[in-house]
Amino acid sequence: MKFVTSMRILAAAALTSAAFGVSAQTLKLGHITPPTHVWHMVAEKIAVDLDAASGGKMKMAVSPLQKLGNEAQMINLMQAGAQQFGIFTVGGLSNREESLLGWSLPYVFKDVAHASRAAGTPAAKEMLKRLDQHGLVGLGYTFAGMRHVLSLQPVTSAKDLANKKIRSFPSPIYNDWWIANGAAPTAMPLSEVAPSLTTKLLDAVDVDLDALVGLKFHQQAPNLTLTNHMAFPAVIVVSKKWFATRSDAERAMITKVVADAEKWGYQTAIDADVNNLKKASADGAQVVTFDIKSFQAVGGKVRDKYTTKNPLIADFYKQSKDL
Asked: Would strands 136-143 and 85-89 be described as parallel, antiparallel, or unpaired?
């Protein structure tokens, strides 16, 4: 009798799974930051809210720290429909859509709140639309803290970085920015930064405070220069191939869930930037007094190069600085 009952239970479960079909699969969301990072918090919120909104039919597994691959590999997975969601840096996506480099123009944004407002500009929304031709649906933005310099030796002006190796995001505009300031930009994964600082293969790191606190880079390089030189957003994307298989109601539900998480993430990032500085200072990071004008001096030249070559970047710059 117990055997018959068990078989009935299994049969019922099989019918339920068949009824859910593709909707019952575990969806994948990947990103490159640690679990303490605000982007991971946004990802988890999307997962929880989508599960609730779908009545449990859309469950999601969130994979931080490149567990599904680096950004280029994850984008390939999404284009094939094998990964459904991603949170990718604008720097990584700019290899597909050049206009996203506009987010990395130096000294455009005062703080994270200013950058968050820029996400609502017509130019920022047009950048998202242009991802469609690359097999991605851009649904929104999420932010980390502003970019600063963390170093082995105190950096009191740009000249202190002359010929010094600084871990920089692998992007042409980052390379142009640091070369203009006399430094030697070096690309490497976040996982390799701490040992490279320990062995002095690196002299400094271009970093946001979310990553600094989460990965404790200040334990190797204690000097923090709050240059505030760039914003650091990511784009919340969905696989175009997978999204096209959803019903109109499901697409509307996903869009709303992401929009709510986007708005929540803005305030979370604003609060985190303040709190992370307190955490870093309490944990041994030494804030350095420095000459900001030495960095700002070359900002205009870098901005001019990119606003001249791309009209959408020029529009974004104008719309952002006027906020």
From this structure: unpaired
Two tokens, residue 250? 């499901």
Is this structure's pTM higher than 0.85?
A: yes
Model pLDDT for residues 192-241, shown as the tens digit of each residue: 999 999 999 999 999 999 899 999 999 999 999 999 999 999 999 999 99
Burial 261-270 (b: 16+ CB within 10 A, else e): bbebbbebbb
Distance between CA 68 and CA 288 in Å, rounded?
A: 37
- CB-count burial class (<10 Å; 0-12, 13-18, 19+) for 137: buried
Half-sphere exposure of 323 (CA within 13 A, CB side): 22
Ordered by where they begin, the domains of the chain are 21-144+233-276 (3.40.190.170), 147-230+282-315 (3.40.190.170)
Query: Which SS3 state, helix, strand or coil, does residue 244 take?
Result: coil
Look at the block and give the residue holding tokens 């990553």.
211
Q: Residues 177-203, buried b or exposed e (16+ Cβ, 10 A)?
A: bbebbebbbbebebeebbebbeeeebb
- For 153, other C-beta atoms within 10 Å of its C-beta total 14
- Is 42 within 8 Å of 13 (Cβ atoms)? no
User: Tens digit of pLDDT for each residue in 228-270?
Assistant: 999 999 999 999 999 999 999 999 999 999 999 999 999 999 9
Tokens (6 digits) for 316: 């974004």
Would you give the DSSP letter of residue 217?
G
Residue 295 CA to residue 161 CA, distance in Å, equals 11
DSSP 74-89: HHHHHHHTS--EEEEE
> Crossing angle of helices 299-309/311-321, nearest 10°?
130
Q: What is the CA radius of gyration of the chain?
A: 22
* Those residues with Cβ within 8 angstroms of residue 76's Cβ, 6 or more apart along the chain or in another chain: none
